[in-house]
Amino acid sequence: MELDPGTVSIIQLAWSRLLGLDDDALTDGGEGRLYSVDDDAPVLTFVTLFGREVLRGPAWAVDAGRHLPALELRSSSTLLTLSRDHGGRALGEAQLYFCDALPQFEGPPAVVSSEAGLVRALERLCPPDDVAEADLRGVDHPFVLVDEDGPEADEPTPLAGAGYDIWEGILAHLAVLTPPALRRKGYAQRISAVAVEEAMAAGLVPQWRARTDNTASQRTARRAGFAFAGTQTSVLLDS
Q: Is pTM beyond 0.70 here?
Protein backbone atom coordinates (compact mmCIF):
# COMPACT_ATOMS: atom_id res chain seq x y z
CA MET A 1 0.00 0.00 0.00
CA GLU A 2 1.04 3.62 -0.46
CA LEU A 3 0.79 6.36 2.12
CA ASP A 4 -1.07 9.59 1.43
CA PRO A 5 1.36 12.49 0.73
CA GLY A 6 -0.15 14.36 3.66
CA THR A 7 0.63 11.44 5.96
CA VAL A 8 4.20 11.34 4.67
CA SER A 9 4.63 15.02 5.51
CA ILE A 10 3.31 14.45 9.04
CA ILE A 11 5.72 11.55 9.56
CA GLN A 12 8.61 13.63 8.25
CA LEU A 13 7.70 16.43 10.65
CA ALA A 14 7.65 14.06 13.62
CA TRP A 15 10.97 12.48 12.73
CA SER A 16 12.57 15.86 12.07
CA ARG A 17 11.75 16.75 15.66
CA LEU A 18 12.85 13.37 17.00
CA LEU A 19 16.20 13.79 15.28
CA GLY A 20 16.76 17.37 16.43
CA LEU A 21 16.31 18.91 12.98
CA ASP A 22 14.29 21.89 11.79
CA ASP A 23 10.62 21.03 11.25
CA ASP A 24 10.95 21.22 7.47
CA ALA A 25 14.32 19.46 7.23
CA LEU A 26 12.85 16.23 5.81
CA THR A 27 10.06 17.86 3.83
CA ASP A 28 12.02 20.48 1.88
CA GLY A 29 12.54 18.21 -1.12
CA GLY A 30 16.30 18.32 -0.72
CA GLU A 31 18.71 15.52 -1.46
CA GLY A 32 21.72 14.12 0.32
CA ARG A 33 22.37 13.18 3.91
CA LEU A 34 21.46 15.35 6.89
CA TYR A 35 23.52 15.57 10.07
CA SER A 36 22.29 16.35 13.57
CA VAL A 37 25.01 17.03 16.12
CA ASP A 38 24.26 16.69 19.82
CA ASP A 39 27.28 16.18 22.05
CA ASP A 40 25.00 15.10 24.90
CA ALA A 41 23.13 12.51 22.82
CA PRO A 42 22.95 9.14 24.63
CA VAL A 43 22.46 7.33 21.33
CA LEU A 44 24.19 7.30 17.95
CA THR A 45 21.56 6.62 15.31
CA PHE A 46 21.30 6.43 11.54
CA VAL A 47 17.85 6.78 9.99
CA THR A 48 16.64 6.45 6.41
CA LEU A 49 13.13 7.73 5.78
CA PHE A 50 11.37 8.16 2.44
CA GLY A 51 14.71 8.32 0.67
CA ARG A 52 16.43 10.78 3.04
CA GLU A 53 19.29 9.90 5.38
CA VAL A 54 20.05 11.32 8.83
CA LEU A 55 23.03 10.62 11.09
CA ARG A 56 22.56 11.91 14.65
CA GLY A 57 24.96 11.80 17.56
CA PRO A 58 27.92 13.54 19.16
CA ALA A 59 30.26 15.51 16.88
CA TRP A 60 33.01 12.88 17.03
CA ALA A 61 30.62 10.21 15.75
CA VAL A 62 28.99 12.36 13.09
CA ASP A 63 32.41 13.42 11.75
CA ALA A 64 33.58 9.81 11.64
CA GLY A 65 30.48 8.72 9.73
CA ARG A 66 30.38 11.45 7.10
CA HIS A 67 32.47 9.52 4.59
CA LEU A 68 30.65 6.21 5.02
CA PRO A 69 27.92 5.03 2.62
CA ALA A 70 24.38 4.37 3.84
CA LEU A 71 24.73 0.62 3.43
CA GLU A 72 27.52 0.59 6.02
CA LEU A 73 25.83 2.99 8.44
CA ARG A 74 22.73 0.81 8.43
CA SER A 75 24.84 -1.95 10.01
CA SER A 76 25.10 -2.15 13.79
CA SER A 77 28.67 -3.35 13.44
CA THR A 78 29.65 -0.08 11.74
CA LEU A 79 28.12 2.10 14.45
CA LEU A 80 29.73 -0.10 17.11
CA THR A 81 33.11 0.40 15.45
CA LEU A 82 32.61 4.16 15.37
CA SER A 83 31.65 4.20 19.06
CA ARG A 84 34.16 1.60 20.29
CA ASP A 85 35.98 4.12 22.51
CA HIS A 86 32.70 5.40 23.92
CA GLY A 87 31.18 2.16 25.17
CA GLY A 88 28.78 1.66 22.27
CA ARG A 89 26.19 -1.07 22.83
CA ALA A 90 23.97 -2.23 20.00
CA LEU A 91 20.28 -1.37 20.15
CA GLY A 92 19.70 -3.11 16.83
CA GLU A 93 18.80 -2.65 13.20
CA ALA A 94 15.14 -2.08 12.43
CA GLN A 95 12.70 -1.35 9.64
CA LEU A 96 10.13 1.44 9.96
CA TYR A 97 6.53 1.02 8.82
CA PHE A 98 3.53 3.37 8.91
CA CYS A 99 -0.14 3.23 8.00
CA ASP A 100 -2.95 5.72 7.41
CA ALA A 101 -5.88 3.44 6.59
CA LEU A 102 -8.17 1.67 9.03
CA PRO A 103 -7.76 -2.13 8.97
CA GLN A 104 -10.62 -4.19 7.64
CA PHE A 105 -11.66 -7.34 9.49
CA GLU A 106 -14.62 -9.62 9.10
CA GLY A 107 -16.12 -11.69 11.87
CA PRO A 108 -17.22 -10.96 15.43
CA PRO A 109 -15.71 -8.04 17.35
CA ALA A 110 -12.46 -8.76 19.16
CA VAL A 111 -12.65 -9.26 22.91
CA VAL A 112 -10.05 -6.88 24.32
CA SER A 113 -8.87 -5.85 27.77
CA SER A 114 -6.35 -3.34 29.09
CA GLU A 115 -6.08 -4.90 32.54
CA ALA A 116 -2.52 -4.91 33.89
CA GLY A 117 -2.98 -8.47 35.17
CA LEU A 118 -3.67 -9.77 31.68
CA VAL A 119 -0.63 -7.95 30.31
CA ARG A 120 1.51 -9.67 32.94
CA ALA A 121 -0.11 -13.02 32.19
CA LEU A 122 0.64 -12.57 28.49
CA GLU A 123 4.27 -11.70 29.21
CA ARG A 124 4.70 -14.89 31.24
CA LEU A 125 3.85 -16.87 28.09
CA CYS A 126 6.58 -15.16 26.03
CA PRO A 127 10.39 -15.35 25.85
CA PRO A 128 12.20 -12.69 27.94
CA ASP A 129 13.80 -11.09 24.86
CA ASP A 130 10.39 -10.63 23.23
CA VAL A 131 8.95 -9.22 26.44
CA ALA A 132 11.81 -6.74 26.77
CA GLU A 133 11.58 -5.63 23.14
CA ALA A 134 7.81 -5.05 23.23
CA ASP A 135 7.73 -3.70 26.81
CA LEU A 136 3.95 -3.94 26.65
CA ARG A 137 3.70 -3.34 30.38
CA GLY A 138 5.46 0.00 29.90
CA VAL A 139 3.42 1.46 27.03
CA ASP A 140 0.84 4.15 27.67
CA HIS A 141 -2.03 2.40 25.87
CA PRO A 142 -1.96 -1.44 26.08
CA PHE A 143 -4.53 -3.85 24.66
CA VAL A 144 -4.77 -7.63 25.13
CA LEU A 145 -6.78 -9.96 22.91
CA VAL A 146 -8.45 -12.52 25.15
CA ASP A 147 -10.29 -15.81 24.86
CA GLU A 148 -13.18 -15.75 27.31
CA ASP A 149 -13.94 -19.41 26.62
CA GLY A 150 -10.46 -20.70 27.42
CA PRO A 151 -9.61 -23.57 29.79
CA GLU A 152 -9.92 -21.25 32.80
CA ALA A 153 -13.45 -19.98 32.32
CA ASP A 154 -13.22 -17.63 35.29
CA GLU A 155 -10.06 -15.99 33.96
CA PRO A 156 -9.82 -14.88 30.31
CA THR A 157 -6.84 -16.37 28.44
CA PRO A 158 -4.50 -13.80 26.79
CA LEU A 159 -3.84 -14.57 23.12
CA ALA A 160 -1.76 -11.58 21.99
CA GLY A 161 -1.13 -7.99 22.95
CA ALA A 162 -0.45 -4.65 21.32
CA GLY A 163 -0.15 -1.10 22.50
CA TYR A 164 1.36 2.25 21.73
CA ASP A 165 3.26 5.21 23.10
CA ILE A 166 2.81 8.70 21.68
CA TRP A 167 5.87 10.27 20.06
CA GLU A 168 6.02 14.03 19.53
CA GLY A 169 2.23 14.19 19.89
CA ILE A 170 2.04 12.84 16.33
CA LEU A 171 3.06 9.19 16.07
CA ALA A 172 1.60 6.14 17.81
CA HIS A 173 4.63 3.88 18.22
CA LEU A 174 3.27 0.33 18.32
CA ALA A 175 4.47 -2.68 20.27
CA VAL A 176 3.15 -6.19 19.63
CA LEU A 177 3.61 -9.37 21.66
CA THR A 178 2.42 -12.91 20.90
CA PRO A 179 3.32 -16.16 22.70
CA PRO A 180 5.30 -18.54 20.46
CA ALA A 181 2.67 -21.25 20.89
CA LEU A 182 -0.06 -18.95 19.55
CA ARG A 183 1.67 -17.48 16.51
CA ARG A 184 0.47 -17.88 12.91
CA LYS A 185 -3.15 -17.83 14.05
CA GLY A 186 -3.90 -14.21 13.17
CA TYR A 187 -4.01 -13.04 16.78
CA ALA A 188 -1.20 -10.49 16.42
CA GLN A 189 -2.81 -9.01 13.33
CA ARG A 190 -6.16 -8.76 15.07
CA ILE A 191 -4.90 -7.02 18.21
CA SER A 192 -2.66 -4.77 16.11
CA ALA A 193 -5.77 -3.65 14.26
CA VAL A 194 -7.36 -2.69 17.58
CA ALA A 195 -4.34 -0.60 18.53
CA VAL A 196 -4.28 1.02 15.10
CA GLU A 197 -7.96 1.92 15.29
CA GLU A 198 -7.53 3.44 18.74
CA ALA A 199 -4.47 5.41 17.65
CA MET A 200 -6.11 6.76 14.52
CA ALA A 201 -9.21 7.70 16.48
CA ALA A 202 -6.89 9.81 18.64
CA GLY A 203 -5.57 11.57 15.55
CA LEU A 204 -2.21 9.78 15.52
CA VAL A 205 -0.23 8.12 12.73
CA PRO A 206 0.57 4.49 13.65
CA GLN A 207 4.24 3.52 13.45
CA TRP A 208 5.65 -0.01 13.53
CA ARG A 209 9.32 -0.78 14.11
CA ALA A 210 10.49 -4.33 13.34
CA ARG A 211 13.99 -5.70 13.78
CA THR A 212 15.62 -6.58 10.47
CA ASP A 213 16.02 -10.17 11.66
CA ASN A 214 12.39 -10.47 12.77
CA THR A 215 10.64 -11.54 9.60
CA ALA A 216 7.50 -12.50 11.53
CA SER A 217 7.09 -8.93 12.79
CA GLN A 218 7.68 -7.53 9.32
CA ARG A 219 5.11 -9.91 7.85
CA THR A 220 2.55 -8.98 10.50
CA ALA A 221 3.13 -5.28 9.84
CA ARG A 222 2.46 -5.67 6.13
CA ARG A 223 -0.61 -7.81 6.72
CA ALA A 224 -1.91 -5.15 9.10
CA GLY A 225 -1.72 -2.57 6.31
CA PHE A 226 1.59 -0.91 7.15
CA ALA A 227 3.89 0.40 4.42
CA PHE A 228 7.67 0.24 4.59
CA ALA A 229 9.23 3.71 4.85
CA GLY A 230 12.80 3.36 6.05
CA THR A 231 15.26 2.02 8.59
CA GLN A 232 16.79 2.88 11.94
CA THR A 233 20.08 1.60 13.37
CA SER A 234 21.22 2.72 16.82
CA VAL A 235 23.86 2.15 19.46
CA LEU A 236 23.73 3.28 23.08
CA LEU A 237 26.67 5.39 24.25
CA ASP A 238 28.23 5.68 27.67
CA SER A 239 26.87 8.68 29.54
A: yes
